[in-house]
Amino acid sequence: MDVYEAVTTRRAVRGFTDRQVPTETLERVVSAAAWTPSASNIQPWHVYVLTGAPLAELKRRVGERLATGEPWDEPEYEQYPAELKSPYRERRSAFGAERYGALGIPREDLEARQRAASANWDCFGAPASLFCYVDRGMGRPQWSDLGMYLQTVMLLLRAEGLHSCPQMAWAKYRTTVAKILSPPDELILFCGMSIGFEDATVNHSRTGRAPLGETVTFVDSADAARRARPPAGGAAACPTSRPHGPRTATAELAKGHAPRSTRTGRVVARIGDGFAGQVRRLASRVGLPPGTG
């Protein structure tokens, strides 16, 4: 599978089989993901991979909290802005409509939506899960590094024939997760990620993406020239402006000025002389012989 195929076939899968994921596959994926870039190579991610009995126990404990209606844990970070503005608000609404529409759940059936959402904490049936933490002292740039790491993991999983689903929902039960993982107090749980083989019998929708023009702007040489070009009649509108176009050396000389190329050469020569003088003075101070480069 090439990179383009991995990118375009990756999606948040919300239905997995119980087929076990080999431990060596998971080790291979996270070993390669360690090469994810991060600012100044600080590698701010702290990752836990759960399978088998520990994951089953986590699912059981969270299931008990769900069954008793226990409130979610106090959030340690804001998952979305309180006032999500356009166009992000519309994109989120469209996702919800597609997601629950594929399950046959109408918008007004909040109870059915909540039941569907509760599958998050069963990892949608996946037999493996990854939990990503970050140090409390880290800032936004380091949190963005987590995104690069998680995307790398998800693409590597596709290369292994596996699917995944990143889930900030796990932060809502962070204290229960912590009882299983025992992370240091200085770490914050960012998200979990369900990992496994897709259950093809589960209905799903393939969410779309915004048109390229909404999110990407190409700026090339031609575009830069268009931006620099003044509006029609711009020269006439300003009495001090002069007609655009190249000024020839002959025209420059006729006005008593040296051609631009000559003046530029003089400036460069003066800069070069000054720099050479600084080098000579520095060499004399540190005791280097004349002519040292």
Task: Describe the structure in brief.
By secondary structure, the protein is α+β, with helices and mostly antiparallel strands.
Describe the protein.
It contains twelve helices and four strands. It has helices at residues 3-9, 23-33, 52-68, 88-102, 110-117, 140-159, 174-181, 212-215, 221-228, 234-237, 249-254, 260-286; strands at 45-51, 128-135, 163-167, 187-196. Mean pLDDT is 83; it is low at 235-272 and 285-293.
Helix/strand layout:
Blueprint (H helix, E strand, L loop, with lengths): L2 H7 L13 H11 L11 E7 H17 L19 H15 L7 H8 L10 E8 L4 H20 L3 E5 L6 H8 L5 E10 L15 H4 L5 H8 L5 H4 L11 H6 L5 H27 L7
Q: How much is the radius of gyration in Å? A: 30 Å
> Strand order across the biggest sheet?
1-2-4-3
Distance between the amino and carboxyl termini: 51 Å
Please provide the count of β strands.
Answer: 4
What's the CATH C level of the largest domain? Alpha Beta
What percent of the residues sit in helical stretches (DSSP H or I)?
Answer: 40-55%
Number of self-contained structural domains: 2
Main beta sheet strand tally, sense and closure: 4 strands, antiparallel
Order of helices and strands: HHEHHHEHEHEHHHHH
> What share of the residues does DSSP label as strand, in percent?
5-15%
Helical segment tally? 12
CATH architecture of the largest domain: 3-Layer(aba) Sandwich
Q: In CATH, what is the homologous superfamily of the largest domain?
A: NADH Oxidase
| CATH topology heading of the largest domain | NADH Oxidase
- What is the 3D form? globular
Low-confidence stretches: 235-272, 285-293
pLDDT average, as an integer?
83
